[in-house]
Design a protein that fits this description.
- The complex is a heterotrimer.
- By secondary structure, chain A is an alpha/beta fold.
- Chain A contains 20 helices and 17 strands.
- In chain A, the strands form five sheets. A five-stranded mixed sheet of chain A has the order 2-1-5-3-4, sandwiched between helices.
- In chain A, helix 9 packs across helix 11 and helix 9 crosses helix 15.
- Chain A is globular.
- Chain A starts with 8 loop residues before the first strand and ends in a 10-residue tail after the last helix.
- Chain B is of the alpha+beta class.
- Chain B folds into two domains: about 60 residues; about 80 residues, Glutaredoxin (3-Layer(aba) Sandwich).
- Chain B is built from seven helices and four strands; from the N terminus they run H-H-H-H-E-H-H-E-E-E-H.
- The radius of gyration of chain B is 18 Å and the shape is elongated.
- In chain C, the strands form six sheets. A five-stranded mixed sheet of chain C has the order 9-10-8-7-11. In chain C, strands 13-12-16-14-15 form a five-stranded mixed sheet.
- In chain C, strand 3 and strand 4 form a beta hairpin.
- By secondary structure, chain C is an alpha/beta fold.
- The chains are: A alpha/beta, B alpha+beta, C alpha/beta.
- Chains in contact: A-B, A-C, B-C.
- Chains B and C meet through helix 2, helix 4, helix 5 and strand 4 of B and helix 3, strand 12 and strand 16 of C.
């Protein structure tokens, strides 16, 4: 932290409103401090800072011509600057830029997945674009790229803002997509114009949540669910991931960070799901298996550090970019897959029905889960652990389509036995949560004593890499938590070099963890640039955890019962067959 | 996108590969070495097909897409083999006002190809180029670097014949 | 590593040799100097223009001839850089007479050797005709083309062997660096450059001294800073930077080292177009020689100052001439510009403070250091000091490079230096500044050309390309030509430029095809204004200039295309129709035989006084190629 008195300030006026901003603040941020909102279309804080859309142009008495406010750092030379953001010249410039963009944009707005929350559409309305055809001319035409399992690229709607490129390169460090060709012929795509599905894309979907238009969108799998629900033969089970309860409300206009767990359960019931269970149960189960695996590796000398395997984007990244290190991955399936496997084995046996007639749906914050369900790791041969995985956005679409007035719904609850969970499970949805949940269980297991303070604050927060050292029963355990693959790379390079000091590492593919997953509700950049959406969403999960009486996975009665009735103990042979998996080495494409 | 991308089988030799690997090893620790690497790779292979770009990606750790993005940005990088004889017609201002556009059109007609293409027999490829700074000789073209100045359309047959 | 004494020693050895290629007394003095053995110097141009016209073979022929006649000790042959008058290439100049042989062919070399080098008589018939006057043979420096010129940036081009560091040192080369390193503080250097009034020669005209001062003072964290040379000369028709690099590469190295000392940088980069192979080769040689002499590298002149230069080649992207794009390209990326601020002086190459100047700017620096700010500021106009190199091209007699004091009028350049418009045609306009510039019409021919005046009349200095157009050039077509260029060269990063240039071109295309309405013109003007204000970099901001300036001075031509559907200059094919004057046609049929589209048909009409029936043109078939006009001896075919 820089102390206020050390911070050098520069005094400017934005539309006449005085602001004292620290040197280095962009005009865009200074304007925000003055309560002035400047439109942005390419700028996405921390992800894409290139200044190419030209919508945030402003005038300053200290600068020549119009300048891009998103990129202009205020310096001592700007002292006393009068900045104007809404002069006739600027308004005309914005309108004209929008008209030009529209001339290259396939304007199928009524049937577009982003109709209503398209940033381009919104700005056209705000800046009075009244003739969408004004500058129509030659337009590049593109075939849809549907090769990837999780998403579609429609370059006909791409406005070349490059936010997706920033997400893939600056955030994830992958560089799978980028700008190809030059000038009017340039477009965003993969090397040698390959389809996304032919590359090493890890399906994280961060590009989708960065996209301001309908150029990138998840493949919608809700029709498969509708069909299963309509099929009287099928027992349709739904399992929402921990983070869904913290984000689903946004799709219905509720403030970011509203916990809608109860309404969500009711909505599932009204949609016609037969059993309303919870991935949180799968998370508790994961902790049982993973902490046992960790203790075993420590005691028997297995591959350390052990790394979590909940995040399918991360797992594919490890398989592709660090194929020699896959031995470090926990063999535990992810909570979604563990849960699915339990429904097709334990639960099917319990009900005495053919697992083929159980249809398990995951509602996930994640587009990579669509890839994960296709992995060859089924507990019951020929039967998928999870049949369909949809994102938060797809669930919201289903709810809207089914005439459900979400905000007016009464709170409901999950069904037994696979709907019961603890506070340890719900924090899986935020970076550090799996680590914290594992520590709650592992520490008690290793010390044999009851843990009084269950919060492990060292692994909370949104730093890209967090580390902590704990002394557990005389043994020092050094742990690290990383989210976002650019950060994961740092830890993996240590492992590859043989210098990793850690025992246990949690890695989530998306920065901030699942609450910021590629399947989560889209947040307009005008909000995202100034509000830490991740923190608001995480708060809802931490509050949910704090309100629970049971906050350690091993205290979950249904978990105890499943071990008594079925798996005997964590890491048992049966547990291995059903709840664990293996990994494959992949090459970079 | 754009020009049709016929797959030409890659015929790189082991010797070329060794040359490429040595060249990359010599350059990869230099900051921002991608451009010189691509330029030298194109000198070795004549063009930059996916096989070559993939080797560069593997050796430097630069994502393939980034290399491709750079290769498709600069007009001197080619993803396709060029003709044995490379004709470039200058369409700079000085040449243009003196009729190099007509020369260019005439060449397309004579060779039966569009600009940017290679004749089916692989003998000639034709490109328009930016000002080569030989404005005193306008209009000019180059064949394999050899400059032909003060051109008129009826000089073309004689010049092309030298390369047949 | 050489010391300053050793540098002076080389200078003393070489200066006589080099000075002989000067005028009159200096040359005679040089000849009488001790150690001076050559009585004659044969300078053969080795610039791109003359090299393409086989000047290498001419050099070989001269050497052979000299050897055969046993003159090796008396005559030397030097391959130099460009002399400027490219239209007359290959050029051979023989000193001390400064006899200027033009359009030299290998076949005449022997005659020059035997007559001039052996017998001492100039071969008048091969001399540049402007040097042969009623009053006898005059030196090239007295011709119209050269006499108004004042060569500062080009002072060594065409005078020294660019591949010899010793010749460069002989002209006083590296003395400025020695002076700076031993007698001046960085602040002193900045002050001299500021006082000289030197402004960037690459286009925008930013004061060079201010740029250096910013890079020196704004960031002082002890980290690496960079000095870059923009040699990505891309404006079509401009080749002064190429000439400096080919003719005097060391001047750029020396100037960059001076800037390195001034701002505190130890590394420089030269970004040069790959289309300039001779320039690249000579730079490579120059860098190697400078390193060998310790004029680049560690501890230069034992002063503790270290500076080295790396060469980077462009790969065919005009936008890389824009300073931020050039830096992203050196960094190994797509050459896309970055918004400014932050300016390169604060955050440039590899995010470090960077000074970037273009070749011609660098070429002025050593002279400013040696001869002083006052000397430099005495040339030019109030706000534009010194000289500027222009590349004359297009419809002008003397195509080539000229260096003239700022403030020279266009009329002097075109009519006196350039020798006027050829073929008796009328001057219509001059285009300066390439695709970023604009047109100067005949009515402004007497405006003194400097940065500010050119902008005031709607053009710009740019890098100094000056293309002359005559009555046969259609201004709408010219605007379209430049737009085609910018559309091709737009990097595609920002919306206004990527889409806007394309849309402007589409509208221009409609106009030249007679399909446009006045509404289109309105849309065009609005877009042009938009791109100027809203594009990310100078390429997009200046892309509309050719349109705006042609509209300013030749609006009537646009109206003629749009309203009357006519192209007054007879260029836009879609608006032309070809007609045969039946009474002039002699019925020879040459037109019909040569027509590629079989558009000419014989009629039944025989004009009075003629024997054969006349022809007529089937306008549906006519492709307006103009071949028939060229073939028609009685000039019966016209285009309208």
């Amino acid at each position: 932290m820089i102390m206020a008195d050390e911070m050098k300030l520069v005094n400017v006026k934005v539309n006449g409103i005085p602001v004292a901003a620290p040197i280095g603040t962009t005009i865009l941020d200074a304007a925000h401090m003055a309560g002035v909102k400047i439109p942005t279309l390419c700028y996405l804080k921390g992800t894409n800072e290139v200044g190419d859309c030209r919508l945030c142009l402003v005038e300053s008495t200290k600068a020549r011509g119009l300048v891009a406010s998103c990129m202009y750092p205020l310096s001592a030379m700007d002292e006393g600057a009068e900045i104007k953001t809404n002069t006739p010249v600027i308004l005309e410039s914005r309108k004209r830029t929008l008209e030009l963009i529209l001339s290259t944009h396939e304007r199928k707005c009524l049937s577009c997945v982003r109709s209503g929350n398209c940033e381009l559409q919104k700005l056209c309305k705000e800046y009075g674009v009244d003739d969408e055809k004004l500058y129509d001319g030659y337009r590049n035409e593109f075939e849809l790229d549907t090769t990837a399992v999780h998403m579609v690229r429609d370059n006909n709607k791409c406005i070349l803002c490059r936010r997706c490129v920033g997400a893939c390169d600056n955030i994830q460090g992958l560089g799978i997509i980028g700008a190809n060709n030059r000038g009017f012929a340039s477009f965003i795509g993969c090397a040698f114009d390959k389809g996304l599905g032919e590359t090493s894309c890890i399906h994280c979907g961060q590009c989708i949540v960065a996209c301001p238009t309908g150029a990138l969108y998840e493949k919608d799998d809700t029709a498969k669910i509708e069909a299963a629900i309509a099929d009287p033969e099928k027992l349709v089970i739904v399992q929402p991931a921990p983070s869904i309860r913290a984000t689903l409300g946004e799709e219905f206009g509720l403030p970011i960070g509203t916990d809608v767990e109860g309404k969500m359960a009711t909505a599932f019931r009204r949609l016609g799901f037969d059993k309303i269970f919870d991935t949180d149960f799968g998370a508790d189960l994961t902790i049982m298996e993973e902490s046992a695996e960790l203790i075993e590796r420590v005691q028997k000398g297995g591959a350390l550090p052990m790394i979590t395997s909940c995040s399918p984007g991360w797992v594919k990244y490890c398989e592709t970019y660090y194929p020699e290190q896959i031995g470090h991955l926990s063999t535990c399936k992810s909570p979604q897959q563990m849960f699915g496997a339990v429904t097709k084995t334990y639960y099917a046996e319990k009900l005495g029905i053919d697992p083929k007639n159980i249809f398990t749906v995951g509602v996930m914050p994640c587009t990579a889960k669509k890839f994960e369900v296709t992995r060859d790791q089924s507990a019951v041969p020929g039967v998928m652990d999870v049949d369909v995985s949809i994102t938060t956005r797809e669930l919201a679409r289903m709810i809207k389509r089914h005439d459900i007035d979400f905000t007016a719904l009464p709170d409901g609850s999950f069904d037994d036995p696979l709907g019961e969970s603890t506070g340890a499970a719900v924090i899986f949805g935020v970076t550090g949560g799996v680590m914290e949940a594992a520590l709650r269980t592992a520490v008690e297991k290793l010390t044999g004593e009851t843990l009084e303070k269950v919060e492990f604050n060292e692994v909370r927060g949104f730093d890209g890499i967090k580390e902590a050292t704990y002394n557990v029963a005389g043994t020092e355990i050094k742990v690290a938590v990383a989210s976002g693959l650019k950060n994961a790379k740092v830890l993996m390079d240590q492992i590859e070099a043989g210098t990793s000091p850690y025992t246990f590492i949690e890695i989530m593919g998306c920065p901030g963890g699942c609450i910021n997953g590629g399947g989560q509700p889209l947040v307009d950049s005008m909000v995202r640039n100034f509000v830490d959406v991740r923190a608001l969403r995480a708060n809802a999960l931490y509050a949910n955890d704090a309100a629970k009486t049971l906050r350690k996975s091993h205290e979950n009665p249904s978990i105890k019962k499943i071990y008594e009735e079925y798996f005997a103990e964590p890491g048992s042979h049966k547990a291995h067959e059903i709840l664990h998996c293996s990994y494959v080495k992949r090459s970079i494409n | 996108m754009g020009a049709d991308k016929k797959a030409v089988p890659f015929k790189g030799t082991e010797e070329q590969k060794q040359q490429l690997l040595e060249m990359i090893a010599g350059l990869k620790n230099e900051r921002g070495a991608l451009m010189p690497i691509l330029q030298k790779a194109q000198d070795i292979y004549g063009y930059l097909p996916i096989e070559v770009q993939t080797m560069i990606s593997d050796e430097t750790g630069i994502p393939l897409e980034k290399i491709y993005g750079v290769a498709t940005f600069y007009s001197q990088f080619s993803l396709y083999p060029k003709g044995k004889n490379q004709i470039s017609v200058c369409l700079g201002t000085a040449c243009y006002v003196k009729g190099s556009g007509d020369v260019y059109n005439k060449l397309m007609e004579k060779l039966g190809i569009e600009g940017g293409q290679c004749t089916p027999d692989g003998k000639f490829s034709l490109d328009a180029c930016r000002c080569i700074g030989a404005c005193g000789l306008a209009p000019v073209m180059t064949i394999n670097g050899e400059v032909y100045g003060k051109l008129t359309a009826d000089m073309l047959d004689g010049i092309l014949a030298k390369y047949e | 590593m050489i010391s300053i004494n050793e540098l002076n020693q080389i200078k003393a050895e070489m200066e006589g040799l080099v000075a002989m290629r000067c005028e009159g007394e200096a040359a005679i003095k040089a000849m009488s100097k001790e150690g001076q053995t050559y009585k004659r110097h044969v300078l053969v141009c080795g610039g791109t223009g003359c090299t393409s016209a086989h000047s290498e073979e001419i050099i070989e022929r001269f050497k052979d001839g000299i050897a055969k006649n046993g003159l090796e000790k008396e005559v030397c042959v030097i391959r130099t850089g460009c002399h400027g008058l490219c239209a007359l290439g290959p050029i051979v100049i023989v000193y001390p007479e400064a006899a200027f042989y033009a359009n030299v062919e290998v076949s005449i070399v022997d005659e020059i050797v035997s007559e001039h080098l052996v017998n001492g008589n100039m071969v008048t018939k091969y001399l540049y005709d402007k040097t042969v006057t009623d009053k006898g043979i005059i030196s090239m420096h007295e011709t119209d083309f050269y006499k108004k010129q004042n060569r500062v940036a080009l002072r060594n081009c065409g005078v020294i062997d660019p591949e010899s560091i010793r010749e460069y040192i002989g002209t006083g080369g590296y003395q400025a660096l020695a002076k700076v390193l031993t007698t001046m503080t960085p602040e002193d250097v900045i002050q001299v450059v500021l006082d000289s009034g030197l402004r960037g020669r690459g286009g925008a005209g930013f004061p060079t001294g201010r740029k250096w001062a910013m890079a020196r003072t704004l960031v002082q964290d002890g980290g690496q800073k960079y000095v870059c040379c923009n040699a990505d000369e891309g404006d079509p028709g401009a080749f002064m930077d190429r000439s400096v690099l080919e003719g005097d590469p060391h001047v750029v190295l020396e100037a960059m080292a001076i800037a390195g000392y001034t701002i505190g940088a130890s590394q420089g980069y030269i970004y040069v177009r790959a289309e300039y192979p001779i320039a690249v080769q000579r730079l490579e040689i120059a860098i190697k020689q400078a390193r060998e002499c310790g004029l680049l590298g560690e501890n230069i002149f034992g002063t503790g100052f270290s500076f080295d230069i790396g060469l980077r080649l462009g790969a065919g992207a005009f936008v890389c001439g824009e300073e931020t794009a050039l830096m992203t390209s050196i960094e190994g990326n797509r050459g896309e510009p970055r918004p400014r601020p932050p300016f390169p002086a604060v955050k440039g190459l590899f995010e470090r403070p960077t000074v970037l100047n273009n070749v011609e700017t660098w070429a002025n620096i050593p002279q400013i250091i040696l001869r002083g700010a006052e000397w430099f500021a005495s040339m030019g106009t109030e706000k534009s000091k010194g000289t500027k190199v222009f590349a004359l091209g297009g419809k002008i007699q003397n195509t080539g490079l000229v260096e003239i004091p700022m403030g020279t009028t266009l009329r002097e350049v075109v009519e006196e230096i350039g020798g006027g418009v050829p073929n008796g045609k009328k001057f219509k306009a001059a285009q300066t500044g390439g695709p970023s510039g604009g047109c100067i019409p005949a009515s402004h021919m007497d405006v003194p050309m400097d940065y500010d005046n050119l902008i005031a009349i709607g053009s710009m200095m740019g890098s100094g390309g000056l293309i002359v157009m005559d009555e046969d050039n259609c201004m709408v077509d010219i605007a379209k030509f430049f737009l085609e260029f910018t559309v091709d060269e737009s990097c595609g990063k920002c919306n206004p430029c990527r889409i806007g240039t394309r849309r402007m071109l589409e509208i221009l295309d409609k106009i030249t095809k007679g399909q446009a309405t006045m509404d289109d013109l309105d849309r065009l003007e609005k877009l042009a204004a938009h791109l100027q204000k809203s594009s990310l970099c100078a390429l997009g901001q200046t892309a509309p200039n050719p349109i705006i300036s042609t509209l300013r001075y030749f609006r009537d031509e646009y109206i003629a295309h749009i309203v009357d559907k006519k192209c007054p200059a007879g260029v836009c094919k879609d608006l032309l129709s070809f007609k045969v004057d039946k009474d002039k046609c002699i019925g020879c049929g040459l037109c019909a035989r040569n027509c590629p589209a079989n558009a000419l048909n014989k009629t039944d009409y025989v004009a009075p006084g003629h024997k054969l029936p006349s022809f007529e043109i089937d306008s549906a078939k006519c492709i307006k190629c103009g071949v028939c006009i060229g073939n028609c001896r009685p000039k019966a075919i016209t285009k309208q």
